[in-house]
């Protein structure tokens, strides 16, 4: 789970403006259009697709048409399109349980359950390629914890030094000339030659692995989701997620049939299907939903049947096809499925999960998200983190209410408002107290509602005044 995030010189995020973003199990970003809030998800997806890239020399994978993040070139993604600037970023995350690494010669052990990472990426104008200026890992938050990383030798794109402090000294196997290290793998990984050059550096493989696990736990669902179909031809394999646009939603539903959840210890477990239908009912979108095979001799072809207040059911099967019940159900279904299909420990990034939903359904969706982060699978907390970009006032108002009612702990929610100022993104952390009140409500957060009401009243008065004057003539 991400605990902190800082991004500098990425798209509209200027180096001097950004601060550490405190992340919680439910982290929500609000803001105007083109304010920069979507860039946060794009940044994380860029790092994820880089860690999954087969090209080990690619510092960053900026994406293509099939990628979640399609960022073009270094000049396209860097702040003000100034390729002389460096991309800088840092984040901290919790590891699963308490881990430990050991300095072999000294036998010193370094236990940790959290990790901090920072990096600087630059563009070499002469070679026209990106390179890692430096990166650093720090285990935990204690001052005596291990800190180790790599930095490029001055003027070189291929020679690197191993940097360390806090009592750890890299030891070479023999005396003599110390050969530099090769360039890092991607933006974060120590190269394999590190193990040969130093007798006590084998633990850096664990650092590489923890980084890969972090980004493997992330999934992304964009705001433009696939339209509903009447017939779904399934591939016969289990998808990793519902996909960037929800294209794998139905296969994921079928693959999740064995899952069972509860939200409070000791309460009855509900099946995956029961959870999805209950959420749709709570949002008043549907009374039932089932995925049915079309025929016994064509098991890979399925249809989705939905029951609404206007549906006519046939036996135990709802009577309406998914495309016939309104776009809201089809658009929110990938959201619901991904939230409960994702494996424990997942970080789910979503843009506008409330799109095409009525205000009351948007409020109910906030309750579903609260259920997601407190959900338990087979009696064990799922530890899901949701990072949501939204425009919904109703979503926020419901979160405030649930905090006031103590339905969700204040510490499990962080909210930010993003707005453009002077050509760059300005981030404001919303100060929410234990009563759900926001102490620093930004001006025109969701538009000037009271201003519009006052103008409407004044317009009415002006029209009545004009009409009265005309009647007196």
Can you put this structure into words, describing what you see?
There is one protein chain. The protein has helices at 37-51, 74-77, 193-197, 204-216, 249-255, 272-282, 327-341, 359-373, 393-404, 449-472; strands spanning 2-8, 21-22, 26-31, 87-103, 108-124, 129-139, 147-152, 160-165, 218-221, 232-233, 260-262, 270-271, 288-295, 298-307, 320-321, 347-351, 376-377, 380-381, 385-389, 413-421, 424-429. The termini are far apart. Helix 1 (37-51) crosses helix 4 (204-216), helix 6 packs across helix 7 and helix 8 (359-373) packs across helix 9 (393-404). The chain is α+β, with helices and mostly antiparallel strands and 473 residues long. The strands form four sheets. Strands 2-1-4-5-6-7-8 form a seven-stranded antiparallel sheet. Strands 9-16-19-3-20-21 form a six-stranded mixed sheet, with helices on both faces.
Q: Name the beta content range.
A: 25-35%
Alpha-carbon distance between the two ends: 73 Å
Radius of gyration: 26 Å
Average pLDDT level: 88
Taking the sheet with the most strands, its summary is: 7 strands, antiparallel
Bin the helical content: 25-40%
Continuous helix count: 10
Quick one: overall form? globular
Low-confidence stretches: none
Query: Structural class of the secondary elements?
Result: alpha+beta
Strands in their spatial order, largest beta sheet: 2-1-4-5-6-7-8
Tell me the number of strands: 21
Task: Summarize the entry for a quick read.
The protein has 473 residues and is of the alpha+beta class. The chain is 26% helix and 28% strand. A 7-stranded antiparallel sheet has the order 2-1-4-5-6-7-8. Strands 9-16-19-3-20-21 form a 6-stranded mixed sheet, sandwiched between helices.
């Amino acid at each position: 789970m991400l605990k902190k995030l800082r991004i500098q010189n990425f798209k509209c995020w200027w180096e001097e403006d950004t601060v550490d973003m405190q992340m919680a199990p439910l982290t929500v970003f609000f803001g105007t259009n083109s304010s920069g809030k979507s860039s946060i998800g794009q940044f994380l997806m860029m790092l994820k697709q880089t860690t999954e890239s087969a090209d080990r020399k690619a510092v960053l994978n900026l994406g293509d048409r099939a990628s979640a993040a399609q960022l073009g070139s270094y000049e396209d993604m860097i702040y003000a399109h100034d390729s002389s600037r460096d991309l800088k970023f840092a984040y901290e995350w919790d590891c699963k349980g308490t881990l430990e690494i050991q300095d072999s010669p000294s036998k010193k052990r370094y236990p940790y359950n959290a990790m901090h990472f920072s990096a600087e990426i630059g563009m070499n104008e002469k070679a026209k390629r990106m390179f890692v200026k430096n990166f650093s890992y720090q285990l935990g938050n204690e001052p005596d914890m291990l800190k180790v990383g790599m930095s490029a030798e001055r003027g070189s794109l291929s020679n690197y030094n191993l940097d360390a402090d806090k009592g750890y000294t890299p030891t070479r196997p023999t005396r003599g000339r110390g050969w530099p290290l090769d360039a890092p793998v991607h933006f974060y990984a120590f190269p394999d030659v590190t193990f040969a050059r130093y007798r006590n550096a084998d633990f850096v493989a664990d650092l590489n692995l923890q980084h890969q696990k972090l980004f493997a736990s992330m999934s992304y669902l964009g705001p433009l989701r696939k339209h509903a179909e009447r017939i779904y031809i399934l591939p016969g394999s289990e998808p990793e997620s519902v996909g960037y646009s929800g294209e794998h939603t139905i296969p994921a539903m079928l693959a999740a049939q064995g899952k069972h959840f509860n939200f409070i210890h000791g309460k009855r477990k509900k099946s995956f299907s029961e959870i999805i239908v209950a959420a749709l009912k709570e949002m008043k979108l549907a009374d039932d939903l089932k995925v049915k095979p079309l025929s016994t001799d064509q098991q890979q072809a399925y249809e989705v049947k939905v029951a609404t207040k206007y549906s006519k059911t046939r036996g135990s099967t709802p009577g309406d096809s998914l495309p016939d019940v309104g776009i809201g159900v089809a658009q929110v279904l990938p959201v619901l499925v991904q939230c409960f299909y994702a494996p424990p420990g997942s970080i789910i990034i979503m843009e506008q999960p409330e799109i095409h939903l009525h205000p009351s359904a948007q409020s109910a969706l906030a309750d579903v998200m609260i259920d997601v982060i407190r959900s338990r699978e087979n009696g064990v907390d799922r530890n899901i983190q949701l990072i949501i970009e939204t425009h919904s006032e109703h979503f926020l108002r419901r979160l405030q209410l649930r905090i006031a009612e103590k339905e969700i702990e204040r510490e499990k929610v962080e909210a930010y408002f993003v707005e453009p100022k002077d050509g760059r993104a300005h981030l404001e952390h919303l100060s929410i107290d234990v009563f759900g009140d926001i102490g620093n409500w930004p001006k025109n957060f969701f538009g000037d509602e009271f201003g519009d009401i006052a103008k409407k009243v004044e317009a009415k008065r002006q029209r009545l005044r004009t009409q009265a004057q005309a009647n007196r003539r």
